[in-house]
Amino acid sequence: xxxxxxxxxxxxxxxxxxVLKLLRELTGSAPEPPSGSAAGLTHExxxxxxxxxxxxxxxxxxxxxVSEWRAAFTAPEARExxxxxxxxxxxxxxxxxxxxxxxxxxxxxxxxxxxxxACGFSGDQVCLAVAMxxxxxxxxxxxxxxxxxxxxETGFEYVDFEKTGKNEFGEKVGVSRVRxxxxxxxxxxxxxxxxxxxxxxxxxGGFAAEEAEMNMELYGMKGALHAIGDxxxxxxxxxxxxxxxxxxxxxxxxxxxxxxxxxxxxxxxxKRFAANAVNNILKDx
Length: 285
Fold this sequence. Notes:
By secondary structure, this protein is of the alpha/beta class. Helices cover about 45% and strands about 15% of the residues. It is globular, with a radius of gyration of 21 Å. InterPro entries: Irc6 (IPR034627). GO terms for molecular function: protein-macromolecule adaptor activity.
């Protein structure tokens, strides 16, 4: 089965953290940065398993300042980007000092905060923290179990890039484990569902399609409203922003309720019910 328009991978880390080295080992190639920074690079990886084939878009980012990155990615504007992701790969050099170790912990917490802000507690994204080789010696000797505990606290799985083969439990380690974890990820994206150009209810591909279309409509209309306000030179107050967030949350709750109500219906009836419900909610908006 070919997965069309799958969710994305975001590979990131501090400058010179080895992100491109990991991508080269994982995918067989890596993009070349036009300047010293890898931020903003994109890549593709054809992932084939016995169950599916997917051409995964990979976005590359750098985190020179954790506080600034956290502020940007926990902002409402970042939600659409984060919800398009299926996996995060955070690369870091093995720490030389306690300060470096603290930065690694803070970065994982910042990523976890961004995911929670965008997806709530229902996020299903794969999060991997990959320790890359450190050229500076000596570096901190952090036991694997401590790394694992530290990463688990923020929803990450710890992977040591330099390990090969399998561990004492027969589990893959190193880059092989990164690939294995990504193979198990749910890559199907709502954006990949074909809604067609016909507004007839039969053009919907099932309830998941109606739900995804409603999400896109809401985000699109919200963005359009902001654009109109910008053109008119209006400044959005904190009270107005809070009201917009509240309205969006109400609509999301309605969407969840509609989904639950339609779960027990036969497919044709569910399609009609969902199409009417979407139209009614958008009219209210």
